[in-house]
Design brief:
single chain, four-stranded mixed beta sheet, mainly alpha, 16 helices
Amino acid sequence: MMSYSLIFTLAFAAALVAGLLVKFWLATRQVRHVARHRGAVPAAFASTITLAAHQKAADYTIAKARFGLVEMAWGAALLLGWTLLGGLDLLNKLLLVWLGGGMVQQLALLAAFAVIGGLLELPFTLWQTFRLEERFGFNKMTWKLWLTDAVKSTLLGALIGLPIAALILWLMGAAGTLWWLWAWGAWMGFNLLLMLIYPTFIAPLFNKFKPLDDPTLKARVTALMKRCGFAAKGLFVMDGSTRSAHANAYFTGFGASKRVVFYDTLLRQLNAGEVEAVLAHELGHFKHRHIVKRLVAMFALSLAGFALLGWVSTQVWFYAGLGVQPNLSPAAPNNALALLLFMLAVPVFSFFVAPLPARLSRKHEFEADAYAVAQTSGADLSAALLKLYQDNASTLTPDPVFVKFYYSHPPASERLARMAAA
């Protein structure tokens, strides 16, 4: 009879291979479908989108998909290297010899894993930013700015990540069999705290924010928020153009710290009515309580995740099945190993349910669009969406199956058809 560890190894390997095959199939479908429709602008957009813009979006989509295939293969190789080929086990043993057991060794394991993983993925990050995005005119980041951001992100990750990791590791060792419940509470509190402090303390480390100073636009936006019963701490413009030509607008913060942020690239591309319509769409998410629903879902899923981690962290087959020899000495706990193995294994199995949250997200986008059309001009929202799709080089002809599996936002054709019907 096969051991539990062998069964888990086979299940993990089967899920990994199946996931890779599905991802490869979806990506190649997307490439073929977009390439097949590259030669002509869809009839619904023929009067508003030029052939050159349509072909640029097609080429950008295909280039990203092909790059994604290479990145996907490398990611799978790294995952196998960390798990079944013994990379994480070797790293853990080396740190045990050097540092002994205890909290310092466990934090060192987490930090070393993050640093090594980041370095191994660095070539792909650089290629995407300075070759792929550069090729299509989107990258505005200099090497100096990229390096500055990398240093800030690393220091901030250590400053924020290590204390919460230490707290969770301590709870795993000191809070008894229900440690996972206490750890979940600490994790949720940490995330809520981040939502509060991010707009004021973290985001300004990377971007410059200044109050919206266009009086006409400010008056329209303020009137819209008042009409919708929404209060924000301020309206800000962010220097997104220092890093990318992509445009966006978003709400950030939580409770009294909420603020509205416009990319400077967005304000350059849209007129006042179109900006108002985009903001109304974002307000629609709040009116339909999408943000609260997503928070509740995150709370529930993370609770289930911590409960599952609480169980598998006590099972020898979980470690052995993923290529790691668990520590047998009480002085050298397995808690950091359990965290890392869990983070590596869960995405392999959860990939197959990805279409469910994507479908729910598309439903929320339709609802937000409908709210925006009710509060502002549907023509303005349609025009804004078309400009954003064009300026961001989003393809107008994605593969339908690829959309159902991955897209968190509906394609332009579906969104505009819904708005026209409304």
